[in-house]
Amino acid sequence: MKIKSIAALCKKVRHAVIMDSASADGSIVQFIGDGNAAYICDGLPTVEEESLLAIFDVPQEQRNTWHVKRSNVYDMLLTSNDMPLYESRVHITYGGKELIPLYTHMRRIVFIDAKYLAPLADNPTMELYLRNANSTPVVAAKTGFIDLAIISIYKAKDKAMAEELKRIAAYVQYTVSIADDGSESGQCSIELEQETED
Questions:
Q1: What phi, psi does 191 have (nearest 5°)?
Q2: Which of 130, 129, 161, 159 is nearest to 142 (CA)?
Q3: I need a labelling partner for 88 at 20 to 30 A (CA). Which of 48, 94, 165, 188 fits?
Q4: 3-state DSSP call for residue 148?
Q5: pLDDT beyond 80 at 23
Q6: Contact at 8 Å (CB) between 58 and 50?
Q7: CA 100 to chain centroid
């Protein structure tokens, strides 16, 4: 887990959440994030509000501008209803955010902000699951049976995104239907023949 990437997310909003959970052996497992995503902090001692800001290298004179709170992560770690998610090869930029579409085998689709995968970049075996955490859908990032992160789902505040995606899908379908040159999908290129003098 990349603690610097977690710190970068929290520094943008000057907000951090420490989420505590008890492991099977009674020890404390902590997740830390910016309120929209929380990441397991393995390899770190148990942190408190003040020590977290020190780990994040927040200058002493700026710490009173931060909001750090504690919460319980128990409900979000229940895994009995996990449903595998599959990442679309097409990402979407909408409202200034890069959104990753994730879909289930039951044709449900959710979106997450791509920046919340940055702290997980060093986990090649990571898999994503849709989880119903206390009636709230979230995305769980896991390796094996271990939760690495809990990420909030991006919710569009209106139907504009759905309408725009519908329009794009229609245009793509039409474009594909009239493309009969047999070329594979990818970046198009233009080749100009150099004129020769007689």
A1: -115, 130
A2: 129
A3: 188
A4: strand
A5: no
A6: no
A7: 8
Alpha-carbon span 137 to 89, nearest angstrom: 22
What is the SS3 assignment for 50?
Answer: helix
Within 8 A by CB and 6+ apart from 78, the residues are 131, 133
Instruction: Pinpoint the alpha helices (H) of the chain.
Output: 3-13, 49-55, 160-178
Residue 78: half-sphere exposure toward Cβ, Cα within 13 Å: 11
Question: How many Cα atoms sit within 13 Å of 123 on the Cβ side?
Answer: 19
Between CA 164 and CA 170 the distance in angstroms is: 10
Report residue 21 CA to chain centroid gap: 21
Over residues 111-159, the pLDDT tens digits come to: 999 999 999 998 989 999 999 877 789 999 999 888 999 999 998 777 8
User: What's the rounded Cα separation, in Å, for the pair 109 and 94?
Assistant: 16
Q: Collect contacts of 45-49 with beta carbons under 8 A, ≥24 apart.
A: 47/18, 48/18, 49/18
Measured CA to CA, the distance from residue 158 to residue 95 in angstroms comes to 12
The predicted model gives 88-92 an average pLDDT of: 92
The answer to whether 68 touches 49, Cβ cutoff 8 Å, is yes
